[in-house]
Amino acid sequence: MAKTAGIQVGDEILSVNSQPFDEIRSFKGGAGTIAIVTVRRAAKTQPVEIPVMVAAISPVRMFLEAVSASARIVDYAGRDIGYVRLWTLASPLTNETVETMLRSGVLSESDGLVLDLRGRWGGISSELPEMLMEDFADISFTMRNGRNFSQRETWRKPIVVLIDGGTRSANELLACAMKKRGFSLIGEKSAGAVLGGNAYVLPDDSLLMVATSMVRVDGEVLEGRGVEPDKIVSAPVPYAGGADPQLEVAMKEVSEQLSGVSPWRSSLSPEQRRCSQGSAARSN
Q1: Does the residue 117 lie in any domain?
Q2: Buried-most residue among 53, 149, 184, 260 (CB within 10 A)?
Q3: What's the CATH number where 130 sits?
Q4: Domain residues for 12?
Q5: pLDDT tens digits in sequence order for the chain, 284 residues long
Q6: Is residue 109 domain-resident?
C-alpha cells in the first residue's frame, strides 16, 4: 500500500500524523483511516506529505499478495524478461502461485527470469526450488484431433537471482542452492541467518524466535557466513528516489545470457560453487 500511495524506495519517513515515526505504533489501531506520512525525498529538501490508507493485515496473506503484485514482464533490450519477488516461502500457496505464473501465467512467455530474494520474511519449501532447478523431461501430448501440447516440468530459461543483506532463512537457502547449480547471483552478501526455529508470541505481543536446528545446503553451513553473490552491486537506500541499480544489473545479465554474451549457468560443479567463499566481481 505504501508503494501504491506513492512512497518510494529511499524516502526518509519523518513522521506519521505529525508524530515521530514508529514502524508499529504509528499505525496501530488506525485500520480504515488515512494516515498522513511525511517524507523527505532528497537531502536538504522540503518534506512531502503523502496520505496512506491504513489496513489491517494478515502477514502471510500480505506477503502472498505482494508476491503476486510483483510479477511482471519487462521489455529490456528487445527481450521480454520476467520478474518476481519472493517475499515469503512460509506458505505452500506461494509455491502454487509462482508455479502457475511460470507454467501458464504472467511469466510463462518471458525469455528469462529475475528472481528477487532480497529483504524478506521466513519460511521453508522444497517444491519451488525443485521446479526451478531440476532437469525433468518435457512431457508432450497429441490429442485425437491432432492438437499438440507439452507440459514443461521445469523452468529451462536463464535465471538471475538478486540477494542482499536482508536475504535470510528459506530464501537464503534457495539462493545458495541455485548458486551451487550454476545460476548467477547479483547484489550483496546475504544475512547468514538460516537456523531452523520456532516462534513464540510473548505477553507484550512481541515475537521470540528460538533456534532449534542447524541447516545445511549440500553439506555447507551458511549460519553466520551468508551467501556471496557472483557480482557485487551495492544499492544505497537513503534518497534513492526509487532507483534499483541491482535490478538494472540483473536485467542486463539476463539479456546478455540470452544473447550468448554470458553463459546461462556456470560449468563448475555444486561442490566447486561454494556459497560462502570465493571472490565476487564488483559492478559499478
Answers
A1: yes
A2: 184
A3: 3.90.226.10
A4: 2-53
A5: 567 778 998 999 999 999 999 988 899 899 999 999 999 999 999 999 999 999 887 777 888 899 999 999 999 999 999 999 998 887 788 888 888 999 889 999 999 999 999 987 667 655 566 667 655 444 455 566 777 655 545 788 999 999 999 999 888 988 998 898 899 999 999 999 988 777 788 887 677 888 888 888 888 889 999 999 999 999 998 998 989 999 999 999 999 999 999 888 888 887 788 898 754 555 55
A6: yes
Q: Would you give the end-to-end CA distance of the chain in angstroms?
A: 32
Query: Do 74 and 53 form a contact (C-beta atoms < 8 A)?
Result: no
Overall pTM > 0.90? no
Angstrom distance (rounded) from CA 165 to CA 43: 24
- By DSSP bridging, strand 19-20 and strand 34-40 are unpaired
Nearest residue to 133 (alpha-carbon basis) of 109, 111, 113: 113
Residue that terminates a domain, selected from 53, 75, 90: 53
Grid cell in block for residue 148: 499438440
69 and 7 both lie in a single domain: no
Domain count, the chain: 2
Burial of 186 (0-12, 13-18, 19+ CB in 10 A): buried
Asked if residue 276 belongs to a domain, the reply is no
